[in-house]
Each structure stands twice: as C-alpha cells, then as structure tokens.
Design goal:
Length: 141
C-alpha cells in the first residue's frame, strides 16, 4: 500500500505477550471481535470508530502488521455480552463467564486503571463496553 493515507492505530491490549497473542489470532482469522471500555474512549476524549473505518493493526514493536476494517460497533452493558462475541474474540473462550473473567482481570489491572486515571476502577454488569467486529483487508510487510 505505497502512498496510502496514514491509518489510525488498531491497538489490542498493551505491548507485550498478550498483544502478541491477540495480533497472531487476528492474522490467523481466529479473532474477529474485540471489546473495550466505553470509559476508555471517554478518558481519551475519542469518538467511537464508525463502521467501515480502516485502521492499522499494531504489534508490540509498534509496526503496522495489517489493515483491519470495522464491520460492526456496538455499545452495550457488560452483562449483555453474548456467547457469539466471546467465541469470536478468538482467545479460546468457551463461555461468557470465561471471557468475562479474563476481561475483568485486564480491566482491573494496574495498567488499565492508570490509563483510565482511576486507581480503583471496577466493572459490573452495567459497565458499558464497546464491542467491535472487524475483518483483515490487507496484510502489511
């Protein structure tokens, strides 16, 4: 994609082993959805991405690995996340409970609390999340 417009970064987790696993799952086609906190968009004063937006999937070294296109963006309470979304995250979840436990651990991590500017941040069934579906449209490099 020479001479293309710069793309917004598509960041999964924080740099490190988790991001590396998630990027690999996207590239393999196992991961076609992701979840974020609406509070994170609010803390960063970011608009929600529109369906059709293309972004650059970024690895732990900051390299653009692929171009992904959003196919769906939903805002819903954490307690409403269904099994299809959990399975499509491509991280081996077989239940919503397993998906939720892993995501709560991440969202309650020191790194996430620091990113949100709230050292005691916690989630519950009413916490609003942003559920995104995407597809890889091009591999880079």
């Amino acid at each position: 994609m020479a001479n293309r417009e710069p793309l917004k970064p598509f960041l999964l987790a924080f740099p490190g082993p988790l991001r590396d696993r998630l990027v690999a799952a996207v590239l393999s086609g196992e991961k076609v959805s992701t979840s974020g906190l609406l509070a994170e968009y609010e803390a960063e004063r970011e608009e929600l991405p529109p369906v059709g937006e293309r972004s650059a999937l970024i690895d732990s070294d900051g390299r653009e690995i692929a171009v992904v296109e959003l196919t769906e963006v939903r805002v819903l309470p954490l307690g409403s996340v269904g099994l299809r979304h959990a399975l499509d995250e491509g991280e081996g979840y077989t239940s919503v409970a397993g998906w939720r436990a892993a995501h709560e651990a991440f969202w309650h991590s020191e790194e996430m609390r620091e990113a949100l500017g709230d050292p005691s941040f916690t989630v519950d069934d009413d916490t609003m999340i942003v559920a995104e579906r995407f597809r890889v449209v091009e591999r880079l490099g």
